[in-house]
Every structure is written in C-alpha cells, then in structure tokens.
Amino acid sequence: MNKIRWGILSTANIAQTELIPAIFRAKNAEVIAIASRGSKVYQVALDLNIPKAYENYDELLEDENIDAVYIPLPNHLHKEWVFKAAKQGKHVLCEKPVSLTAEEAHEMVQICKEYNVKFMEAFMYQFHPQHARVKEIISSGEIGEVKMIRSSHSFYFQDRDGDIRMNKDMGGGSVYDVGCYSIHAIRSVLQTEPIKVHVYAKIDRDTNVDTSAFAYMELENGVTALVDCSFDMVERNEYEIIGTQGSIKVPYAFRPDRNGGGGHVIVKIGNKLREEIFYGDIYCLEVEHFSQAILEDFQPSYSGESAVNNMRVINAFYESIKTGQSVNVKR
C-alpha cells in the first residue's frame, strides 16, 4: 500500500475547503468516503469527487477499506468519535482543539494507544518550513538570549448567530478557536511549557462565550509570553520573539496559505532588517506527514502527549478567566 485511504467524518466547511482538497494534492493519500447526518452528503460527495457517501458516521467507520479518518466535528464531539474511530481500527487526525479538557484529551490518546492507531491533533500551521527556520535562528544565537515571545491571532467574526463558535456548551470561544494556536506556537517554537497564566477576557453577554482574551504567561525556561486572541479584531496571525540582541517576527505564522503559502521570517538586529521567505502547502504537508507516519509506522512529530499539554494550558486560561486570578498550569 502506498496511499492511505481517508474517510471524512462531517461535511464541515474546513473539510470541504481545506482538508479534502489537500488530501487530493497529497502524494500518499486519497479520499474514498465522506459521512454526514442526512442526505446532503451525497451532493457534497458528488461535488468533491468522493467515491462513497454515508448518511451516518458509524457506517463510515465500519468501512474496512478506510485506513484513517479526519474529524472536524464540533469540539464537544471529538472525544466520542475519536473513541469510536479507534475501536474500529482507524487512525485519527482530529481537528483542534482536540477536546474541551486535558482529561478528555488524555483519554483520547490512551484509547488510540490501546487500539494501536496513530493519533494527531490538526495544527496544520506547524508543518510550514518557516517555523523550523525560526528555531534555527534562535539556536544560532543571532538574536541573543530570548526574553519574550508574543503571539496574536484574531479575525473579525461576522454572522455569529447560530454559529457553533458562539455556543459555550459546544466548545465555543476565542481561546478554543484561535488562542489555541498561539499557545501551541509558544510551546513549540521555544520547546518549553507554560507554568503560570493570568488571563483577562471579554465575555459576550448573550452566550457567555469569550470573544477576546489577553494573557500573560510564565514559561519554564524563564521567558515571558503574551497572547491575545479575538473575534472582534482585524485578521492577524503572527508571533514575535524578542532577544537581548535582536528579534524575529513571523507575520503569517498560522495562515500562510492566505498569503499564497508564503511565510515571512523577519529578523531585526539593531537597525538592520533581513526578510526570508519560505513556501509551504500547510494542509497538504500535514496530511502527507500523518499518512507517512501510518505507512512507515512511526509516531507523528506532534505527539498525543503534547496535545494533552496544550489542553492543560487552555484549561488554565479558562480557570483564570473564571477566577480573575493567576493560575498554575497543572501537570
């Protein structure tokens, strides 16, 4: 077998516009089935040239020809369907955030281990080559000792009525939706873990969902981290690392695909600026990496344990928002 056969659990917009086209572009993957609750799935399958369509998720999971599934369901349904997929022997790529709590995430990782299937949370941005370059520059010492990192991810969210991102019970909120990227990037780029957070949020009166959040984090390595995320601001998806001798700014950190796939790494030393540009197809790179992990039986570079740690920080964010106090990240 030289291609992983994928099934898609849901006709969610991200599946139709991003993941399914990426699987078609991937060298080691193909889409053979999609499922949804209802007959609309047949038209979607026809439009996207997918051979099989199922009117419920269980039927897709029972298809013995499917090797792996992508789960872009609402956040509160991730655990249920990861469990069901694992028990059917399907490898799982689960959309972020992987769950609503770190405890759920841990259970999901454990069930996948029990049934010997690969598992990965779908932070596609991390596969873009710009981030590896940032790590190289930091390691080289060019910007000196890292003292601070800040990350911003926002977009102006229109047409909110009825959207699951405004439903608290379904895992709505700016931290779950976009703040999770900044948390992940800080942990990934600096290879360290947050130990304490203090977060302020703006809460929508009607839904009780956080529409913006502003966070201070203390990291294990002594670096200070600042995060802001929002449904109420213009689109931004960036991070900046500040050292004793210079800085690195990445203005298209999470969605370089919105910039033609181009990721910019801007290094400032004194008054001198240097800009390096890297290209990458983030969704395709994600699919190819996970598919190759299945084909060659190795663990994905982004582990289940790291996904659990990301959720621990998200949980601490929400506890701090609720209490108004600094919160230690649980281990």
TrEMBL record:
Belongs to the Gfo/Idh/MocA family. The keyword Isomerase does not apply. Keywords: Oxidoreductase. Residues 4-122 form the Gfo/Idh/MocA-like oxidoreductase N-terminal domain. GO terms for molecular function: nucleotide binding; oxidoreductase activity. It comes from the Bacteria. Residues 132-248 form the GFO/IDH/MocA-like oxidoreductase domain. This is Gfo/Idh/MocA family oxidoreductase. SUPFAM superfamilies: Glyceraldehyde-3-phosphate dehydrogenase-like, C-terminal domain (SSF55347), NAD(P)-binding Rossmann-fold domains (SSF51735). PANTHER family: OXIDOREDUCTASES (PTHR22604), TRANS-1,2-DIHYDROBENZENE-1,2-DIOL DEHYDROGENASE (PTHR22604:SF105). It comes from Lysinibacillus telephonicus. Pfam families: GFO_IDH_MocA, GFO_IDH_MocA_C3.
